[in-house]
Design brief:
- This protein has 127 residues and is an alpha+beta fold.
- The protein has one domain.
- The chain has six helices and five strands.
- Strands 1-2-3-5-4 form a five-stranded mixed β-barrel.
- About 12% of the residues have low confidence.
């Protein structure tokens, strides 16, 4: 009976560990490198054959317009658009204000990925 309970307990622990591991795969912390863009214009880029390339031609001045700013910010990486959380939107707005070069819209974004959103920790110019 003790052996059975030990095996049962071990099986339960392994099952819980596996379930938690699968949950962690859905939310991951990492950095992505792509094009910083407002969500309103970024959504239009997603219809293009190469959204990241199309976004690279998007003017920084447009992303700083009031209406575009209100839509929130995102980063386009390949054919995926990662939307920013509230903190990320503030960081993106500040980042755009302090950069003077259009080429600085290619950025590295650090944060926790949840679905199609990033809980942004930092935005830096991509090297």
């Amino acid at each position: 009976m003790r052996l059975f309970l030990a095996v049962l307990a071990t099986t339960c622990v392994l099952s819980i560990t596996a379930a938690l591991s699968l949950a962690d795969d859905k939310d991951s912390g990492a950095s992505v490198t792509g094009i910083l863009i407002d969500q309103a214009c970024g959504a239009k880029m997603m219809d293009k054959a190469d959204p990241e390339k199309a976004a690279a031609d998007h003017p920084k001045s447009c992303a700083m317009k009031e209406a575009c700013e209100k839509s929130g910010y995102a980063v386009i990486v390949g054919k995926k658009m990662w939307k920013f959380n509230a903190k990320g939107n503030t960081l993106a707005k500040d980042y755009l204000k302090k950069t003077d070069k259009t080429s600085d819209i290619r950025v590295k974004v650090d944060g926790l990925h949840k679905g199609d959103e990033i809980e942004v920790d930092a935005i830096t110019v991509a090297k």
